[in-house]
Design goal:
The chain has 273 residues and is mainly alpha-helical. The chain is built from 13 helices and no strands. The protein has one domain.
C-alpha cells in the first residue's frame, strides 16, 4: 500500500519538522540548483551581470551621493563604502523577490505532489548566495586596491551574512504566503523594496540618524546587517550596539512570525495557489 501523508494544521504556534526537512534535503538541493541554472541559462553575459550590476551602481552612488552630494562615508573610500552596502542589500532584495514568487511559480508541482512547501522560499534564498559569493570576491579584490587589510572584525562576517539570510527568508516567508492568496502582492513588492532601500544605510551611513532614534531605525533588519558588513570587511566604525540589537531582534520576530503565517497558509496553499 502506498504511503499516505496527511496535511493538517500545525498543533503548535511554530511547528517546524526538522527530520522531515532533512529527508527532503536532496529536493532542496535540486530546487537551489534549478534556480541557479535558470538564472544563468540562455543569458548574453551570464555571470558577468552579477558583477556589472553592483559595480555600475557603486560608480553611480560614488559620483552622485559621494562626490556631488558629499555624504559622509564613515572614513571609508566611497567605492568600498557603497559596494559593501550594496552587496548585502542586493542579496536581500533579489532573494526576497524570488521567494515571493516561489509558491505561485511552482503551483503545478504543489498541486500534484506533497513536499514541505517551505523548501521553495528557502531554496530561493539559498540560491541567491551564489550571486552574493561572486560579488564578495569582487569586493575582496577591491579592498587591497584601496589599502584596506582585514582586521579582527572579519571574524564577525558570518554573523552579518547570516543576519542578511535570515532577514531575506523572514520577508520571503511572509510575502510568498501573501502572494499565494493575493496576486497583486507581486506588484507591491517592487515598491516596498525600493522604499526599503531608502530607509536602509545603503547610500548613507546610519551615523546620520540621531542617536536617540537609532533603536527605531534599527528595527529595519537590514540596517544592522549592512552596518555590520561594512565593519567586518573594512574594520572602520563598528555598528551602534543599540541599532544592531534592534535589528537582530527584528529579524527573530519577523522570522518567527513568517513561519507561523506560512504554516497557516500552507494547509490550503494547494487550493488557492
Amino acid at each position: 500500500m502506498a504511503a499516505v501523508t496527511r496535511i493538517a494544521p500545525p498543533g503548535r504556534l511554530v511547528e517546524l519538522d526538522l527530520p522531515e526537512l532533512w529527508t527532503y534535503r536532496e529536493l532542496l538541493y535540486f530546487f537551489v540548483w534549478r534556480d541557479v541554472k535558470i538564472r544563468y541559462e540562455q543569458t548574453f553575459i551570464g555571470v558577468a551581470w552579477v558583477v556589472l550590476q553592483p559595480v555600475l551602481t557603486m560608480i553611480a552612488f560614488s559620483v552622485l551621493f559621494g562626490r556631488l552630494a558629499g555624504l559622509p562615508s564613515d572614513e571609508l573610500p566611497y567605492p568600498i563604502f557603497y559596494f559593501a552596502g550594496l552587496l548585502p542589500w542586493m542579496y536581500f532584495s533579489q532573494s526576497a523577490t524570488r521567494a515571493t514568487n516561489a509558491l505561485v511559480d511552482n503551483q503545478r508541482v504543489i498541486t500534484k505532489v506533497y513536499f514541505p512547501r517551505i523548501l521553495l522560499p528557502v531554496s530561493a534564498v539559498l540560491a541567491g548566495l551564489v550571486d552574493f559569493a561572486i560579488g564578495f570576491v569582487v569586493l575582496a579584490l577591491l579592498l587591497p586596491l584601496y589599502g584596506i587589510a582585514p582586521t579582527a572584525a572579519a571574524w564577525t562576517l558570518p554573523y552579518f551574512v547570516g543576519l542578511s539570510v535570515a532577514a531575506a527568508l523572514a520577508v520571503g516567508l511572509w510575502l510568498s504566503a501573501l502572494h499565494a492568496r493575493y496576486r497583486d502582492v507581486r506588484y507591491a513588492v517592487q515598491f516596498l523594496l525600493m522604499f526599503w532601500m531608502f530607509v536602509s544605510p545603503v547610500a548613507y551611513p546610519s551615523s546620520l540618524v540621531p542617536a536617540r532614534w537609532r533603536w527605531l531605525y534599527g528595527l529595519n533588519p537590514m540596517a544592522g546587517a549592512i552596518d555590520g558588513m561594512r565593519w567586518a570587511l573594512a574594520g572602520h566604525t563598528p555598528p551602534d550596539p543599540i541599532l544592531l540589537a534592534a535589528s537582530s531582534a527584528a529579524v527573530v520576530v519577523l522570522l518567527l512570525g513568517g513561519l507561523v503565517y506560512f504554516q497557516r497558509v500552507d494547509v490550503t496553499v494547494a487550493d488557492v495557489v
